[in-house]
Amino acid sequence: MAHTSTRRGPAFYLLALFFALFVAFLYGPMLIIFLLSFQGPSGGLTFPMRGVSTHWFGDLWSSSRYGDLGGAFSRSVMLGILSMLITAVCCLFAGLAFRRKFWGAGPLFYLSIVSLVIPGILLGLGISQLFQLLGFQLHWWLSALGAHLSWTLPFGLLIMFAVLNRFDSSWEEAARDAGARPRQILAYITVPILFPGLIAVALFGFTLSYDEYPRSLLTVGGLNTLPIEISNMTTNVTTPALYAIGTVTSAISFLVIAAAFIAIAIIQKNRAKARGKQA
Amino acid sequence: MIAMVGIPLATVVLLSFWESDGIAIYPAFTLENYREVLTSPLTLSLFLKTLEYASITLVCTALIGFTCSYFLVFHVRDLKWQIGLFLLCTIPFWTSNIIRMVSWIPFLGREGLFNSFLIQAGLTNAPLDILLYSDFAVILTYIHLYTLFMIVPVFNSMAKINPDLVEAARDAGAGSWQILCYIIIPLSKTALALGTIFVVTLVMGDFFVVRVMSGGQSASVVSAMKNEIDQLYYPQASAMAVLLIVVVLLMVSAVLRIVDIRSELAR
Fold first, then answer.
1. Which candidate in B63, B72, B96 is best for mutational testing of the A interface (most A CBs within 10 A)?
2. Is B71's CB within 8 Å of A146's CB?
3. A-contacting residues of B 48-77, CB under 8 Å?
4. What are the sequence ranges of the domains in chain A?
5. Between chain B's N and C termini, which has fewer beta carbons within 10 Å?
6. Does B127 contact chain A (CB < 8 Å)?
7. What's the pLDDT tens digit per position in A156-167?
8. Nearest-10 Cα torsion for B69, B72, B73, B77
9. Is domain B43-266 annotated with CATH 1.10.10.60?
10. CB neighbours of A17 closer than 8 A, spacing ≥ 6?
11. pTM for the complete prediction?
12. ipTM for the assembly
């Protein structure tokens, strides 16, 4: 990309140092809690490490002090998967629709931008009050899911725009000329070509919902999701178990990210191979 | 979208006109909540504090985000490395904000790593208290959490700058400083504006970081609102919320006036 004709000067090394410091700044604190979560049974919240053990991980599941972590965890994962599926499907069609002007396109676009920039807790307040006025019960799978979608859908839509920018619609036209029906075009042309982008949208859908806190706070109703349990723990748990749960959720996030990346990489590789065969 | 964004927002606006006595809320039309919110000196100081957080965070994230993207785009030559390093910057975005915030506590605390390092190096003999549970900690956490929102758009728009343009300028005898000022900064202005919107609205809408990292000593608009919600003063909280939304939307539209964001998204 950058074809500089000059040799690398001191500016390069200065900037590289700056960048390295920034990465350290990003990851450093996380590494500290990963280390501290393996604190020995008598260890406290900070260094020094008193032995190495997985005591606090066991403590998380066996002790009842931390509330219903297992339930919160499964609810968070379920919500994440639901938001992921809905976000991916809705954003695909919305993105395709936005390629042409349609009735209400402008207001819909601005509404999604507003939903991105509005403080999450306000939306939570609005949704919870609305439910109360209408006499509905707050449920994590209804009101909280809606709150999560108000956050994942606009985000996914923006990414879908970026993905569609690189999509060449002459593929679709070619299929139409060859006599394909709209549904066939969608199933055999559009979706397969856009698939890596859809994985990215789905990844956002899952992780944003899985870690969502301010919007969920007032909308989950009686049963909490994992981020809310964790934030409660920050105020009343003073053992490394707090770090252990942090390590566990981060590990899950990293697993999901890695799975998405690997899937995209495999698809790209297969495509490159197919292209190689044709040549 | 309409069901989950439009209607709840309308509910908040409606609620802001209602009456409450701390136990229940009554449908009514009153401007009392607004009068209370607007005349209270507390509101002004809360908004000033929040704006102070937002502006300091904005300046820091813009500088860091711009420098990092500049390095990635114009100094890293291999495309593979470029993308790899970029992903390295964005991965934390997909992990939990709460965990990332909590992870500063063992580093900054009284017996934390940084303080014990200072003591061992002989720089101070007592642990510094200002590191954790202070404005410093709040802003540091904001920068840590939200710089990503600056890097992603700026990197994207910089990567779209035609390298020939830079080359041509260099051939015409421009120094790298001139190239930076006259080509790269003007061309990434829209992206900086986009990042600004994200960072400012995120900071203005936050309450959790303020509450935990300041140890309850500072408050922002939303954290004050959260307290009112906890005490079931929903109408007052709603009035505050409406005020906040107005301020945020004014700021966003001010930014939009200066640059056309849609052209950046559509590119």
1. B96
2. no
3. 64, 67-68, 70-77
4. 67-236
5. C
6. no
7. 887 787 777 777
8. 170
9. no
10. none
11. 0.74
12. 0.70
